[in-house]
Amino acid sequence: MFQSTLQSPLGPVTATSENGNHITDVSFCAPLCQRACTVTEQAAQQLLEYFNGKRLIFDLPLAPAGTDFQQQVWQALLSVSYGHTASYGDIARLIKNPKGVRAVGLANSRNPIAIIIPCHRIIGANGTLTGYAGGLDKKEWLLRHENAL
């Protein structure tokens, strides 16, 4: 396992790669190991650029572990661009499963690659902020940072 951590306005953010080739996790926590690799260092650099307002799009190889349905949802999340939001229903319709709103919400909550796969950009149908694994305070900060609120 490889990890790189940066100090962000939200506390430590750690990028993990299981094999050194793809990012498998980004979370709001301190690292478990102190061994970095090229892809985790690239992720830390791009996240730093994001927090400094200099990066709107991430360009990293990603390999989140999840079910086929979760993968489909997480891929759809990547279509919600910086500064925009979408509802769980929007994502359900995008993946051609309009009745799967709750399942989309569950998959969204299990996203292992925070910020880069932008689950924070998904809000309730009425425009309210709803659950975020990192905490609603972080979700609100991220959306304000992107001028999406």
Automatic annotation (TrEMBL):
The organism's place on the tree of life at top rank: Bacteria
Keyword DNA repair: yes
Sequence ranges assigned to domain Methylguanine DNA methyltransferase ribonuclease-like in this UniProt record: 1-64
Reaction(s) catalysed by this chain's protein: a 6-O-methyl-2'-deoxyguanosine in DNA + L-cysteinyl-[protein] = S-methyl-L-cysteinyl-[protein] + a 2'-deoxyguanosine in DNA; a 4-O-methyl-thymidine in DNA + L-cysteinyl-[protein] = a thymidine in DNA + S-methyl-L-cysteinyl-[protein]
EC number in record: 2.1.1.63
Organism: Pseudidiomarina donghaiensis
Annotated compartments: Cytoplasm
UniProt GO molecular function: methylated-DNA-[protein]-cysteine S-methyltransferase activity
SUPFAM superfamilies assigned to the protein according to its UniProt record, in alphabetical order: Methylated DNA-protein cysteine methyltransferase domain (SSF53155), Methylated DNA-protein cysteine methyltransferase, C-terminal domain (SSF46767)
Annotated GO CC locations: cytoplasm
Note in the entry: This enzyme catalyzes only one turnover and therefore is not strictly catalytic. According to one definition, an enzyme is a biocatalyst that acts repeatedly and over many reaction cycles.
Protein name: Methylated-DNA--protein-cysteine methyltransferase
Family under the similarity heading: Belongs to the MGMT family.
Stored PANTHER family: METHYLATED-DNA--PROTEIN-CYSTEINE METHYLTRANSFERASE (PTHR10815:SF5)
